[in-house]
Write a structure and sequence with these properties.
The complex is a heterodimer.
Chain A lengths: L4 H31 L21 H8 L3 H32 L5 H10 L5 H14 L6 H9 L2 H11 L4 H9 L4 H12 L1 H17 L2 H6 L8 H11 L4 H31 L6
Helix pairs in contact in A: 1-13, 2-13, 3-6, 3-7, 3-10, 8-9, 10-13, 12-13
Chain B lengths: L3 E10 L2 E11 L4 E5 L6 H9 L6 E6 L2 E2 L10 E4 L11 H11 L4 H15 L14 H13 L5 E5 L7 H18 L2 E5 L3 H7 L2 E6 L2 E6 L1 H6 L4 H6 L6 E11 L2 E6 L4 E4 L11 E6 L5 E3 L6 E11 L3 E7 L7 E6 L9 E5 L6 E3 L13
Parallel strand pairs in B: 3-8, 3-9, 6-7, 7-8
Antiparallel strand pairs in B: 1-2, 1-4, 4-5, 9-10, 11-12, 11-14, 12-13, 14-20, 15-19, 16-17, 16-19, 17-18
Helix pairs in contact in B: 2-3, 2-4, 3-4
Chain lengths: 276, 367
């Protein structure tokens, strides 16, 4: 059988992409596989690909002995609130920078953009000292504050909001809508893709964040998943299967969230770069 | 219905004066069309009337009340934007109902107003559709419907047909004329399309560099332009101009000597203009006639190009008296070839004369 050139190119591309996908997904697959193995099974040589006797022992141990459920809930609460806060502040600020006229708007925006060059780690110590002064260390509010608004979020929303026709806002203004009503009824529905994008970004960032909660939280009961897992791994350094189960618990929710919102997320990232 | 007056309205954008002391009166139920080249300030003036731009100086009076400090929604004005500015996530019904909902109208009132506007504009079957599911013309009608439901005192239209194809433009132009007859409301319309302006307007307002150059009925502006700019701007193809000097004033008007020595008799009065002053003669393409023998008031020309348009022929000629090609509009299929030497006749009573500052000299009264 003979194939034409485009068919051969297509087949080669499919095989190439399939190979890359297998390489990318293999660690996730093995993580899941090991999490279902009996204690010590993964340490055999050569390491097994699949569990000999699949079991949920590691998950039971995580939830019953290591109380991972509590940390899961902590992470869920912190990430959800951070997402709500981030959306509230970034979206209103981004919209204001894009569509409202006020004195010094462009200057403030440029100054804000300049802060992007400062690494987040540099700001952590001053931020920690500030929180200490106002008594927010070891509180969830303390964990949330740095995520409430950020240059990146404001920039992302502003760039998207710039694509909203000003005439649409003016039309609503001429129909007697207040600025709040315009924002709620006209602007927010138009911003849906970027809201999903920013929401996903924030949720993922807070869910995965290790360093800041580690600094701010001292009470073990308030730990988020990454901090709790780090503490757990110190105690169970040999329990590869248990660690993999905890990794699955950490990754699964965000993976599901990302896949569910992927359609909006990608639209949000692409918009503005392509006209129409 | 409402009467609108602008008195010495000025607007500056970062040190650039975009509207300079514009004064204008638009009467009850009048269809006024703002025309002018790009950057002339016509859209800015419309936005000023709408309340979307604040003025630096002057007064905006609607029925005698100064609305300069009043919010757009309180002025009793509705505006149709060039881009339609429909709310993309709302259906046609919701788009039409939005303003009334804001105003606190009851559900029954809203339904009645929306249905009535939809019937007027042929939108009844489209009420459940979203803007992305509509054609250009349907979107345009939805935008007009959104303005109609509010029963405004004044309608503003900012180049509403510029996004439509030629056939649809013509259809919608007729719709606008019908709408104005039906609603009998004051309408102000911005366009750069001559045909739209001439056919729709009760009054055309010509703007240049933020100034009102002339305002009046279309035929007045066409036949009696106040200055060279208006003369050149109104009419398509544009008016032809020939430079010359006044050589004599006589009982029939004046004699103007063109570059090259040809003298033309013009039925215009040289009020306050000295003999020897430089002037420009303007004449519309349809008033120029082609001849093949030399007679008085004729100038030599060579045909450069012809355009057969079916019902008429546009003949572009080169003369020693004008820097650019002059255009002659002849009826039917006029038999003339490129490169042919002809004479063009300028009827004295059809010529306009403009002084060095561009102002039109008064025409001699018809005998």
């Amino acid at each position: 059988m003979r194939f034409s050139a485009p068919t051969r190119t297509g087949a080669a591309a499919t095989i190439g992409l399939f190979t890359i996908a297998v390489i990318a997904l293999f660690p996730l697959f093995w993580m899941l596989s090991v999490s279902l193995m009996l204690p010590g099974e993964a340490s055999n040589f050569p390491p097994p690909l699949l569990p000999k006797y699949p079991t949920l022992t590691n998950y039971r141990a995580l939830f019953e002995q290591a109380h991972i459920g509590r940390y899961f809930i902590n992470s869920l609460i912190v990430s959800s609130f951070a997402t709500v806060l981030s959306l509230s502040f970034n979206v209103t600020a981004g919209y204001a920078f894009a569509k409202l006229d006020f004195k010094g708007r462009d200057l403030v925006f440029r100054l804000m953009l300049a802060t992007l060059v400062i690494p987040a780690q540099v700001a952590m110590i001053p931020l920690f000292l500030m929180l200490k002064t106002i008594g927010l260390v070891n509180t969830w509010i303390g964990v949330l504050i740095p995520f409430a608004a950020g240059t990146f979020g404001i920039f992302l929303v502003r760039q998207y909001a710039l694509s909203i026709p000003t005439e649409m806002i003016e039309a609503a203004r001429m129909e007697g809508a207040s600025e709040l009503r315009i924002f709620r009824s006209i602007v927010l529905p138009s911003l849906t893709p970027v809201l999903v994008t920013l929401g996903t970004f924030t949720f993922l960032a807070v869910w995965n964040d290790f360093f800041w909660p580690l600094i701010v939280l001292t009470d073990e009961h308030k730990y988020t998943l990454p901090v709790a897992l780090a503490a757990l791994s110190r105690q169970h350094v040999q329990d590869v299967e248990l660690m993999m189960a905890s990794a699955v618990v950490t990754i699964a929710p965000v993976l599901v969230l990302f896949i569910a919102l992927q359609r909006f997320y990608i639209r949000g990232l692409l918009i503005g770069s392509v006209k129409g | 219905m409402a009467k609108l007056s602008l008195k010495n309205v000025s607007k500056t954008f970062s040190e650039t004066e975009v509207i300079s002391g514009a004064s204008l009166d638009i009467t009850d139920g009048e269809f006024a069309v703002f025309v002018g080249p790009s950057g002339s300030g016509k859209s800015t003036l419309l936005r000023i009337i709408a309340g979307l731009e604040e003025i630096d100086d002057g007064e905006i009076l609607i029925d005698g009340v100064d609305v300069a400090g009043i919010a757009p929604a309180q002025r009793g004005i509705a505006m149709v934007f060039q881009s339609y500015a429909l709310y993309p996530h709302m259906t046609v019904y919701e788009n039409l109902a939005f303003g009334l909902k804001i105003a606190g109208a009851s559900r029954d009132e809203i339904e009645l107003a929306v249905k009535s506007a939809a019937e007027t504009l042929g939108l009844v079957d489209l009420l459940d559709r979203r803007p992305r599911e509509l054609s250009g013309g349907e979107r345009q009608r939805t935008a007009i419907g959104r303005a109609i439901v509010r029963k405004p005192r004044i309608f503003l239209f900012d180049e509403p047909l510029s996004n439509l194809d030629a056939a649809l433009r013509l259809k919608m132009r007729h719709e606008f004329a019908r709408l104005h007859d039906e609603l009998n409301t004051t309408m102000i319309y911005v366009t750069h399309d001559q045909a739209e302006a001439m056919t729709l307007a009760d009054r055309i307002v010509v703007l240049r560099n933020g100034r009102v150059e002339q305002s009046g009925p279309p035929q007045d502006l066409y036949e009696r332009p106040a200055n060279r700019f208006v003369a050149g701007f109104i009419g398509s193809p544009a008016m032809n101009f020939f430079d010359g000097t006044i050589s004599e004033a006589n009982s029939a008007g004046m004699l103007v000597q063109l570059k090259g020595g040809t003298k033309l008799q013009i039925a215009a009065m040289c009020d306050g203009i000295a003999i020897g002053a430089n002037v420009a003669i303007g004449i519309r393409p349809e008033h120029l006639a082609i001849g093949r023998e030399a007679k008085p008031n004729m100038v030599d020309a060579v045909v450069d190009l012809t355009e057969q348009l079916g019902s008429r022929t546009l003949i572009y000629v080169r003369t020693p008296h004008a820097a650019n090609l002059s255009v002659i509009e002849a009826p039917g299929n006029f038999p003339v070839r490129s490169g042919e030497a002809v004479q063009i006749y300028l009827p004295p009573d059809k010529c306009h004369v403009f002084d060095v500052d561009g102002f039109a000299l008064p025409r001699c009264p018809a005998p």
